[in-house]
Amino acid sequence: MASKNNPGLPSWEGRSLKLRRISAGLTLVELAALLDVSKSTVSRWERGDNEPPSDHVAKLADILETPALAFARETKLV
To answer: Are 9 and 56 in contact (CB under 8 A)?
Structure first.
């Protein structure tokens, strides 16, 4: 399934963002400051309530030193 905010990319997986943020030693507040968004915005992304726009996905990937597709929900082929 394609992402709502990022056509052409797979669906957003917020849990991956949270795990990678924690692994990088960043708090919600620190990551939000690096992205110039509120901590509640990052929290909503992590819970999967909302998806970040593609420019923020690219920034997240850069900050967390991971490919943008690391935030994609896995899909199973049948």
So the answer is: no
Model pLDDT for residues 28-58, shown as the tens digit of each residue: 999 999 999 999 999 999 999 999 998 999 9
Tokens linked to 23? 């692994």
Helix, strand or coil, per DSSP, at residue 30: helix
Residue entry with tokens 């690391």? 70
pTM of the full structure:
0.80
Residue 72 φ then ψ, to 5°: -90, 140
Half-sphere exposure of 70 (CA within 13 A, CB side): 18
Instruction: Give the helix ranges, DSSP H, for the chain.
Output: 14-23, 28-35, 39-47, 54-63
